[in-house]
Task: structure prediction
Amino acid sequence: MAGPGGSALIDLHTHSIFSDGSDTPEALVLAGAAAGLRALALTDHDTLGGLERFLAMQPAVATRLVPGIELSCRFLGRPLHVLGLFVDPGEPRLVARVADMGRRRLERNQRMLERLRERAIPITWAEVAAQAPTELISRTHFARALVHRGAAGSPQDAFLRLIGDDGPCFVPFQELTPEEAARWIREAGGVAVVAHPGRSFPRGFRWDEAMRALQAQGIQGFEAYYPDYGPQEQRYFLELAAGLDLVPCGGSDYHGDNKPGQALGVGRGGLHVPDAILDRLEALRPPRPAYTDPEI
Ligand code: AMP
Ligand code: MN
Ligand code: MN
Ligand code: MN
Result:
């Protein structure tokens, strides 16, 4: 499908049931192909779980399927997400590191249950797990369980009053630095880009300085295209990427029915990530060193 300037659509940021999306990897690929995408990345939060099924669909579609992951990090005391594009889902160090993150996430989830119980919301593990189609349990599933038991009026209400980044029952589950994330990604053959910088920090945050620091830590690009950005914000991030020679990436952050109104490729309708981005990312993929070190 051609967009402005004749460039085909690509989408480098999507989720499946393996994190907090509602589509199976197969359904996601078929929807991407039906939308005419030239390339589609699956970037579930902190898991490689959906990638085998995702990549197995490649022969069925003309859309180029890009394996990815969205790693939860902390930067300057706030959550920051780092996307790894083109990671090898079987790379042993990344597999072990992500499994370790999964264990820390489980512990964090238990502590969030305790915090909710302290606030007289006696929600159980089983209630939260019942909202998750796969083993990864995120705050999205907490939010749904809280609505289900009547402790919140809507998922948004749950995030606002209880489990959002500034909420009383939120517990961060690890302290992965962007530098670690970039290294994990690079060592697995991928390219590291910061997800939705405009959404992660308060308005007025000095992204020019921060992005320079992140670049020095191994970050190679960031999302300059994102459905929630206004035209001014997009222009700001495009200029920042050009000035620092970082790749201006982007995607819809599609979560299927779990984030309504957000369509593959086009977001809320106006998103258009130029397909030339793909070639720039490709050129940054590291040569794969032989695997030697079993340490994580
Ligand atoms: P977790 O990785 O378990 O800490 O959960 C993070 C996920 O929760 C994010 O990726 C979003 O999908 C969701 N989330 C976080 N904050 C909000 C919010 N304020 N409103 C809606 N969803 C949110
Ligand atoms: Mn999410
Ligand atoms: Mn994110
Ligand atoms: Mn995402």
